[in-house]
Structure formats: C-alpha cells, structure tokens
Fold each of these.
Amino acid sequence: MDKLSAMEVFVRVVESGSFVRAAERLGMSTTAVSRQLADLEAQLGARLLQRTTRRLHLTDAGRGYHARCAQILADVEEADASVRTDTLRPRGVLRLSAPVSFGLKHLTALLPAYLAAYPEVTLDVDMSDRQVDLVEEGFDVALRIAMRLPPTLVARRIAAIHVVPCASPAYLAREGEPARPEDLARHRCLVYTHAAEPGIWTFGDEARVSVDGPLKSNNGDLLRAAALAGEGIICEPSFLLGDDLAAGRLMPLLRGEPTPPLALYAVYPSRRHLSAKVRTFVDFLIGRIGDPPPWDAWMEMAEPRRSGPEGF
C-alpha cells in the first residue's frame, strides 16, 4: 500500500463527504477508493470513518489523523511547488487563534496590512481566551501569552508582555497607594477570573498575595474600564493598559516589585516544514510589533514614585 496515496484518498473522502465524489476527484473507481481506505484502517488498527447509508462521520481517531494527513499533503504540495518555481507565494486560508483583548486592541490594525501585502492569503480568525488544540481544531497558528509553552509546540517569541498592577489617580487619592505587595490585601482589587490562579497576584520569586474586591470578570477590558472609573486596583498585561499608563489615566504601582515575565508567542504544531503563509505571517507580526513593543513605551516615560520609606 502506498501510504501517501492512501492518506490522500482518506482526506478527499472526508472533504467530499462520499466515496463516489472522492473517486471522481481522484480519477479512481469507487471500489479502489474503498479498498485503499480499508487497507489504511487495517494498517493503523483503528477505524477512521463511521459509514451509514446517508453520511460519513469521522471517529475521534479519524479527526486527529485527518488534520495530520491534510497538513502532510499540504507540505508535500508546497515542497513540489518550491521546486517548480523560484519563489513560493503565500496563498490559501490561514486559520489563526488569538486572545480576545489582544486581538481587538492590536490585530485589528495589523491584519489589513498583512492582507494587502499577501493578497492570495485569506484569514480565518478565531478570537478566544481558551487554549485551542491546534491539530484537533485545524489551526495554522495561535497567539499565546505565557511564561512558558508545552514542549510539543514550536513557537517564536514576538514580544515581551509585562503584567502591571495599577490604579486610577482618583482611587489612589481616595484609598492611598500600596507600598509593598502585602498591602494589596486591604485594597479593592479587580480580579481576572481566567487567570491560572484567580485572586493570587505574584511578585518576584516568592511573594504571592491573596486579593479580593468588588468586581471579578473573565474579560480584561471590563476590568480596565472599572479601574479607569476608580473602582480599584487591577493587575493586567501591558498590551491592554499601555495607552492608559502613558497618558496617566492609570498609575503603575509597586515598581520595585517585578511581576513574572510573560511574552507573546506565535505557536504552531510541531512539524519540519512551515507553510509560506504561516512563515510570512509570523515574520510580519515580529516586524510590525517589535521588541520592546509600542505598548511598553510608558515604561521609559514613567519614573518610579516614592510612596514609602523604602522608596517603592
């Protein structure tokens, strides 16, 4: 059995939704298509498709295997194209997953420029704060903000992300400014519930502070709006707060107490060959965002303020 040919048969059957239409696309008989798929399932020792009189359904094993096969076939097609042409043009659908707040605040301005530079690429963007399964769900690339990433993923670092505790001038005038992390326990803190440990803010290597307050949410934009209204202290990523910090609408706190370092990464399934559309997209983001990124310009403008005897 030709394994690559059997993979193509499997992928075309899934795409077509029937053995007959797949056979027509491949220029094969329906019997030959059915035999190749049966041989592939026998070699794998797993059923890939459930067949009924009306429809075909992927099994759980079939869904993961289909995503892998589709990528392998795309890589083979791209490798062939690279031999036939001097330059490889990015083309096709690029499926992207990105965090909601980052996507709305920064990707909205960047994506039109990428499409203008690469008109043969179509973007399919899913904005969600959950961590998608790239292979299972068929994403080409995902943007993630993290300290570290699983070793199963290939990743490129795009830019630093700083988590900044801050509050509005009105709140600080009314409630005072914390001089050290443990002071946060007596303040009104606005809690992001989608964090790994909601209600725990970390400083340095060991300082872990339990915080609470009048508002909790899984959306950073909502918490930012509440902080701007003087409702309390937030501890959110700089990409969300940079403009407010630069304009003085929010004031950074505890400047001498570093929060854990994060970074924005582009991640994609581990494989030897990247498609041109993924490679150019990641290069584009790195070139346009830069490191340090524009959302951290406030860090050069703001001087640490002394609010306590130890100079915090």
Amino acid sequence: MVERTGAFWGRRHGKALRLGQRGLIDTVLPALTVDLTQPPADPRRLFPVAVDDVWVESGFGGGEHLLALAAARPTLGLIGAEPFVNGMAKALARLDGSPLAERVRLHPADSVELLDWLPEASIGRFYLLYPDPWPKKRHWKRRFVSPVNLDRIARVLRPGGEFRFASDWAPYVDWTLRRLLDHPAFAWTARTADDWRRPWDGWPGTRYEEKALREGRTPAYVIARRL
C-alpha cells in the first residue's frame, strides 16, 4: 500500500462560525501565523520574547493541550498546526489578549508544510494527539503516521528530542508503533507494560480523551526518542 504524503485531514469546517469567531480568524490569526514564505530560521526567533526551546503540536483541536503547555512552561515557545477552522477559532478566543500569545505561533493547515519549512534539528518535541484514525482500510493512506512523515519529524527534532503520540484507537496505536520500531531515527522509550497506558506527567487531558473514556476506550501514550 502506498502511504500518502500530502494532506491528512478531511473537512476544514464544522458548523458556521459566529461573527466574533470570524473576527478572530480575520484579525488575530494573521498576527500569530508562521510566515512560511520567509526563509526558515531558528524557530525561537518567531517569538517576541526569549524562549529556551520550541515544541510543535500537530492538529491541536481547540488548543486545550497546546495552551496548557504554554501556561505551565513560561520559557517555552509553541507552534500549533490545525487545519480545522472551528478548532482554530476556539484557540484564538483563548489567546486573544492573553500573554500566552507571545509564546504561541500558529499554522492554519496540517503540519506537513510546517515540518518541511522548519530547519533541521530545530525543535525539542513534536506532539500528535488523538489524530483521526481513518479506520476504513481505503482511508489508511490518510493516516498521518507514515515512514515519509516520520522522516519529516526526525529531520526537525534535535537528537534526544521526542515524538509524543496519543490515541484511543488501538489499531492506529499498533500502526504507529510498528512504523516507529522500523524507523532508524527513533527509539520507543517504554520500559514496562504500563508505560504507554499512563498519561505523561503534567498531562492536562483533552476533550477527545474524555470522549474516549466515556465510551470505554483505553488511550495509549507513546514516546519515541530521536536518536
């Protein structure tokens, strides 16, 4: 099976945005968007304040995890990618007027272009949390985790950096682990059977996780270290 190398999302819109949400997309988002037309540089320079590291989250939903990280780590810069307009609007509502906006930058599309733009070995961590599992076999080519995208992630992570993946869909967890174990740039960090069953320290939870737990699914939390 050929694994897809392009876009990995389906629809970009849900219900119609309210007037205030449209205003945030028009006025706040442009100031926070990473300009991929500019030559790539140290991503720490994207922020108006000093940061000591930069982490990326791909498909941040409404921004719950992204903004919790920003609040918990005052010297961290974060770049969030999200193609879904309604999720972006939710995150912008929380960022508008917040000091966290100084340390958050956004990419209103999936993260492939962002990964290709970032310099080599320039970030410390990459998150992929509860991505669409595309459960039907004919849609597996849309799954974000593939050898090509793991190459992309490996290129931008510094040695010792981490790829963190969470999902409640067991077949996608297995899919991801197989590809990570086959990739020469990554090592799975689990040491015991429970390592991947427990959330990471400081994990704030997400609405997708809450739904999974309500519906009786068990999430998995995978950490792979860049060699």
Amino acid sequence: MTKEQERARARRRHEEQQKTAKPPVGDATRDKQVFGVILAVILVIAAVIAVPKIVGSSDTPSAASTAPATQPTDGATTSSGGLAAGQKLAAGCTAPPALQAKPKQQTTVPSKATAAGKTFVATVKTTCGDLVLELDGAKAPQTVASFLNLAKTGYWAPSPCHRLTTEGIYVLQCGDPTGTGQGDPGYGFGIENAPKDGRYPRGVLAMARTQDPNSNGGQFFITYKETQLPTDGGGYTIFGKVTKGLDIVDKIAAGGLVAAGEPTPVNPISILSVTVTEKKA
C-alpha cells in the first residue's frame, strides 16, 4: 500500500470517529444540568412538606372500667335540663331538671356518732317515682352520717343518676350534682362494711369511690342484679338496701345505654329530693 493510500484510509477512520463521538459538554451546559438536578430535589422536598398529615393522633381515651370505683365518666344530663342525644323518657318518668349551677360544698366530715347504732329510712324522690331506702348506721355509721348530712343540706337536689352498667356488673350510680361523675361534697372518708367476698346482692345500696379508699363522698350505687365486685383496695361500703322502688331501677336498666361502652342510660332518672327519718324499734 502506498503512502497516499495509507493517508486516505487514516482520513476516513478519523471522519467515522468524528460522526459517532459525543460532543464535549461545555462549562455552561454542565452548570445548567447541575442546577436542574438541585431544583428537582428542592421541588420534591417542598412537595413532601406541603402534604398534610393524614394519620390521626395515636392518643386514645383510656377504656372505662365497669366497676363503681372507676375513673369519673361524663354524664349525659344537659346543663339546661331535658334529654341528651339518644335519650328518651321511660313510662312514668318526667324530664330531668337542669344541673345545679353551683353544688354545695363542705369541708368537714360529719360525725359518725349521729348515726351509730341506728337505722334510718330515706325517701328519694326521683323523676321516675320514689325510692325508699333503709340505712344501716350500725354497720356503716360514718357513711350513714354523711348520707343524713347531705340529705339535710339538699346536696342532691337535684342530681342525675349519671351511670349505668349492664354487663358483668349491674349497678345504677347516682349522687353527683355535676352530672359528670367527678363531683364530691368537699370531703371524703374511708371504707366501712365491705363484703370480703366482693358479693353485692340485688337491691344493695353501696358507696362509689375512686381507687383511693378514702374517696367515699356523695356518690352511691344500687345493684339491680347480684354483682361481683373486686376486693382490691378494700371493696365498697354497703350501707343499706332498697326496700321500695327497685322496679324503677329495673326499668331504667332495661332501657340500656345510649352507646356501647358508654355509661349514659337511654332512660334518664334524676334525684329531686331526699328526706330521712329514724326508724324506731
């Protein structure tokens, strides 16, 4: 091959390489590409930040226990009286009155000497009829003394029975003028006459309390079926029994609850007044 032919072949190879080779990237072009990448990243980050959270709070209300010693639960009676959502009147009942604007408060626990060794009869006038209770001052003198005091001062006039339990534990709880389950008369006292086996027969009148054994105050409950309650912490004071009107409690219980897991009875009942007399032998 002549030198002229070699030069011609070399020239053709060079031309072919030039056709397939990528053009070099200039500084300006490179800067544009880098800027484009950065801008894209910024836009993605901004979009993520701008998206609203759709996952709700992980905080959920603690489940309410069914025992009368549970943490307070909201009642349903409205501050202006009448029926709350989901409630209706049972036969023979009238609409609940408005809650007390300012429930009476005291600071001194009444002397148990006023009730010790005595038996009393309490008539509880309600929006669904009268409940008659027999109070045992011999077995629960402090509790009965407190009940006498609160009745005399009109502490419960009026107040709703804010809590009903219908599964496992069968009680109607009353005695809080605020209707929230958090009210107390301003004092507290300890447990008396609590059954060691935790058995509460139908028609028993007992004190409700928190986990504090000295938190007995103004709230009490009536068992409309035999109920087994925990004995941890000392149990619950039995201080009497229903002698008349338990059919009224049965009627309220039969109406059930406004919502599952909630304490509000479908059929409301409120205390209007309480009068107490000593039972003579």
Amino acid sequence: MKQYTIFRYLYIYYSFVFILHIINVFLESEILNYIIGILAIIMLAVSFSGATRLFKLLGSIFIAIGGIVFFGSGQDFWMIPTFLTSNMSLLTLLAMLPWMNSVVKSGRFDRSLNQLLNADASDLGKLYPGSSFTTLTLASFLNLSAVTISQDVLNNTLRKLNKEVRNSFISTATLRGHTMALLWSPLEILVALTIFHTDVEYVVLLPWLLLIVVITFFLDSLWGRMHYKKYTYENNVSIKQGVVNRKALIKKILHLLAALALFLMLVIFFGIILDLDFIFTVTILIIPFSFCWALLMKRTRSFWALGWGTWKTSTNTMQNFVVLFISLAFFANSINETSFLNFIQKPILIFADYPLLIFFIIQLIFITMSLFGVHPIATMGILSGVIIMLLDFLNPLSLAIVLVTSSVSTVTVGSYGLIVQITTMNTGQNPYQITLKNLPYALVLGGIGSVIAYLLL
C-alpha cells in the first residue's frame, strides 16, 4: 500500500524536476544543471521499482556499461550527475503531450479523424494508406503528438480486432507515416543538422526529399494493401453516404489543420526569438496553446477535466521512460568521452573509392547505432569528422540525401527511441517487436535515398 501511495504522487516530484529543467534552459546554469543531475539520480532510484522487468534490465545494462566506460576513462566520480541530464528535454516533452491530446479530444477532433480513417474501408488493406497519410499530414504540423493522436484513434477503431493484428497495423501505419513527414520538414532537427554539416541549401534538397517521400509512400501503401487485405473488420463509425455530413467533416479537419499550422508558426516564431530548439519550444508552448485553443472553442471545462486526469495518470506511470532515458543518457555521454568514436569512422574511410558502398555503410551505421540506443543526432555527431572528409570527393547534395534518409529511417526501428517508446506505451507491445516489424521499411527507405544520391553524383 505504501508503494501504491508513492506512485500516486510521483507526478509532483517529476513535475518539480521538469520545471527546474525548463528554467535552466533559459539560465544555462552549471550549478542548477548539477542539482538537476542529482535529482535525476533520485528519479532513477524511485522509478526503478515501478518499471517493468524489461526496462529494469535495459536500465541496468546501460548503467553497468556506462559505469565501466566512465571509470575506465578516468572521469571524476562527482561528475556523474552532469552525465544524466541530456535526455531531460525528452522526458519533459513526454509529460506535456497529454495536454495537446486532451484539447484534440475535447474538441472532438478524434471523432472526425475516426470517421476519416474509417471512410470507404472494408478491410485493413484499404484502411492502411489512409491511416499512413493521415499520420503523415498530422505529423507535418504536430510532430510527436500526431503519433499518439493517430494511435489513439486506431486503437479505438480497431478494438474488436485480434490484438496482435491491431498492434502490427498501428506500429507500421503510424510510425512509417510519421517518418515520411519528418523526412522533408524544415523543423526536423536531423534535417537541420544535415544542412549544417553539408552546407546544402534546403530549397535544393527539398525536391529530392519530396520525391523520396512519394516513392516511399507508394511502395509502403502497396505493401500495406497486400499485407493487410486479408483482415476484415467491423466499422465502429457509421459513415454511409446519407449518414455522415461530409461538409462538416471537412470543415472540422480544416479547423484542426489550421490550428496545427498556427501552433507550428508560433513554435517557429518563439524558437527564433528565444533561440530555442524545436523540441523544447514545442514543450513550453503545448499548455498555453492548448488552453487558448480550448477557450476559443468554448471547451475549457472538458479540456481541464480530460487534461488533468490524463496528465496525472500519464506522469505517474512514466517510470519506464525515466529509467530508460536517464540510464541511456549516462551510457551515451560516457561513450562520447572515449576513443570509441574513432572506431566508427574507420570503415567508411576504407571504401572511399566506392560511393554507393559508403552510402550503404552510413545507412547501416545509423540503424545499428539506433538499435543500441544511440540517438541519430549523436550518430550524426560521431560521423561529423568523416562527413567533412567525404565532402572533398562526393557531391554534397548526394551526401545530404543519404544523411537525412538514413537518420530519419531509424525513427521506426530505434527500440529505445521516443516514437517507438510512445508506441510501446499506447499499444503495450515489446519495443523489439516494433523494431523487427519496421526494419525492412527502414532499410528500404535508406536504400531509396542511397540509390537516388548515387544517381546524382
């Protein structure tokens, strides 16, 4: 009973740490960062007992390997707290996501999406392209929240289906649709990093990225129709021609897209004015924007009722994420202080005269590193020295295409990545199941990018 009481009020402690982190993003205080690191140790200790067996195992492995590397590199013991805070922005964003979902539900946009996803689909094969495209469209405006919104809708729409089939459908349609949105978005950090490293202008890169999106969407939709057409399902929403007001449905969707477009414009504006990264800007704007949106729709009561309860429940059950991301931060930061980075760079330089092979090696490095919990941003940093050398004899545009497609493709297969973990939370699947299901897609997406990049040499 005592343990139950503790976990009922975890949201208070978590929120306190997240607020300190938000404050410190503006202050950039090393002292406050160190305090947050100490609080992160307490978060890890408190959350460990509430985490599932899988995440306890993963956390233990990351801490053990990170500890061996940390002490082996001669670091001072008192520096450990500074190695634990790099993923705090991801945890803070996770805590904020329920508020955006709540305003969407309070405005009953999820019902409209439900109708849209159900339209003219008698089997899952016909439903697949629409589900993927809906996630792609929403993710272009809403990024991470689009995944949870689409998955919530599909969980409800397909609730009568076999759980394994339902989870497979959700983890392929939504994650793949999300990556296709990230691939061309100027707000995606991986796109921005690629442009920074290669000095290729976005307007030059954009047409080729859109071409890759079109090709990938066509091939994936074709696969989805063939793979899922054998599964019929009962439509949970009556959408017969005489029943649904399609004009009202279109108006509702346009309202949603307009709100999401406004949200992104505000993110861009405040990101530039305050010089903040995209993820953090989204995090601090979610609550005020959601409240103002609910106010304009005259849905503030339902917004607070849905939001408060959902947020408390979600935050109180973040133990898996806390254990994963704090231990992963320790592991990744410890590795970054060693000569391991040089080991990653060597295979590429050996095949300098074979550009297509180099492109495939880059793709495999991104995917392999993501399977071991290394974020593609970190992998991009690891490869930065090699990228400079490759620019001496490779077309910068070709290299930029490979870097974008290779890094973004890992979103669907990074077992410890944010999107896969959100899907794990929403479907109850093992993250490795999601990874295996999407691995062929990640390889094909990266392969398309590599082939197009090679043809442009």
